[in-house]
Amino acid sequence: MIDIPLVDLRAQHEQVADEVADGWAEVLKTTAFIGGRQVAEFEAEFAAYQEVRHCVGVGNGTDAIELALRALEVGPGDECVLPANTFIATAEAVARTGATPVLVDCVADTGLIDTALVSDALTARTKAIVPVHLYGQAAAVEELRSFGVPVVEDAAQAQGARRNGVAVGGLGDIAATSFYPGKNLGAYGDGGAVLTSSDELATAVKLLREHGSPRKYEHTVLGFNSRLDTLQAVVLSAKLRRLEGWNTARREAAARYSALLESVAGVTPPVVLEGNLPVWHLYVVRVAERDRVLAALHAAGIGAGIHYPTPVHLTGAFDSLGHARGDFPVSEAVAGEILSLPLFPEITAAQQERVVTALAEAVR
Predict the structure, then answer these.
(1) Does one domain contain both 151 and 210?
(2) Of 127, 183, 206, 239, which is the active-site residue?
(3) Model pTM above 0.85
(4) Are residues 335 and 234 in the same domain?
(5) How far apart are CA 267 and CA 86, in angstroms?
(6) DSSP notation for 177-207
(7) Which regions in the chain score pLDDT beneath 70?
(8) Residues in Cβ contact with 208 at an 8 Å cutoff, skipping those fewer than 6 apart
(9) CA-to-CA distance for 363 and 148, rounded, in angstroms?
């Protein structure tokens, strides 16, 4: 039985339960389930937190990436450069616009997109670069902006993270984030948002998320139905007021893991890219014989996981890209060794010590 979970959503819920219940009662009383004032309030709060002018709530994180791309008029015939080491949603959103995902390898020590390889992936058809802020730390977006191509940040794992003092969401031209329940800022269901300081791009996303309709029964463009529910906005506002404290707790837990792992041979701890202030959505180590080690941790009651076991180019969904094993060797090597250890704001030192003891025994 797993008694130290990978993520403990129950502990987080207990801290906001009363506030959420009161907020939901108000929504139920007014029946403003779609487009209630709480949505606009959360959008304003989160935009201020991420230090951008606009937050546009949408149905989920994958929609957020797609709508951000469509706001930049990405479509059939275009290409978007992104890392092979990411959750499939990044590439999926590109493909849903009709554009082609162009993959590049990652850096071994951080897992982030290798910015040195991006220039070789750019063509006359490149319409956007989509870096992923993986595991809670930012990619080197400033290096990508030097290419003069719009940058769409996949910030689903990095709410509150900073790079060189700048909050994610404001590093590129436009950003997408997810409020999937397990994220640092998670809803009680699906949800997402697009972030930007561009009035023009924000207006485009607002139009697209609402059936291409600037007002009821007027449809100026072909749009989508992708809106953040009022009930979820209540949850997110309650959690947002605690997010900075939760992220601080995650940093303390990550530092504790790193200190405990200094004496453990056979485990490579994560590396923070210079200039980054991560929020540690995940604490990901690398080990040999990962699957055996993972099974041993599970047998010991430790809820470790893998993020992500298969690079995009090796998934059946993207066979059409024509890649084969060996095309992105670093991403492939990383995928075979990565192991996510339990990490959540409420994790105790005793729990972490037990995780590291079990991990040391497994790798030994």
Answers:
(1) yes
(2) 183
(3) yes
(4) no
(5) 22
(6) EE--TTSSS--SS--EEEEES-HHHHHHHHH
(7) none
(8) 67, 70, 71, 221, 223, 224, 226
(9) 45
Cβ-in-10-Å burial (0-12, 13-18, 19+) of 228 comes to buried
DSSP state of 281: S
Identify the residue whose tokens are 């769409």: 152
Which structure tokens are listed for 66?
């797609």
Give the pLDDT score at 186. 98
Quick check: 363 and 302 in contact, CB under 8 A? no
| Residue 36 identity | G
What pLDDT, in 10s, does the model give residues 156-208?
Answer: 999 999 999 999 999 999 999 999 999 999 999 999 999 999 999 999 999 99
- Residue 1 included in any domain: no
Residue at 16 is within a domain? yes
Which range of residues forms the domain containing residue 325?
Answer: 243-363
- Is 253 a member of any domain? yes
Percent of the chain with pLDDT over 70: 100
Predicted local distance difference test score (pLDDT) of residue 58? 98
For residues 326 and 228, state if they share a domain.
Answer: no
CATH number at residue 191: 3.40.640.10
Helices in the chain by DSSP H: which ranges? Answer: 9-30, 37-50, 61-71, 88-96, 118-121, 141-145, 199-209, 230-261, 290-299, 329-335, 349-363
CATH code, 350: 3.90.1150.10
| Same domain? 217 vs 330 | no
Active site residue 183: yes
**Per-residue model confidence (pLDDT) at position 1:** 86
**189 lies in the same domain as 311:** no
What is the domain count for the chain? 2
Query: What element of type H or E holds 163?
Result: strand 162-163
- 163 and 250 in a single domain? The answer is no
3-state secondary structure (DSSP) of residue 112: coil
> 180, 212, 238: which is the final residue of a domain?
238
Sequence-ordered list of residues with C-beta below 8 angstroms from that of 304, at least 6 positions apart, any chain: 6, 294, 297, 298, 339, 340, 341, 342, 355
Say if residue 233 is in the same domain as residue 316. Answer: no
Helix (H) or strand (E) holding 82: strand 79-83
pLDDT in tens, 65-100: 999 999 999 999 999 999 999 999 999 999 999 999
Do 15 and 138 have their domain in common? yes
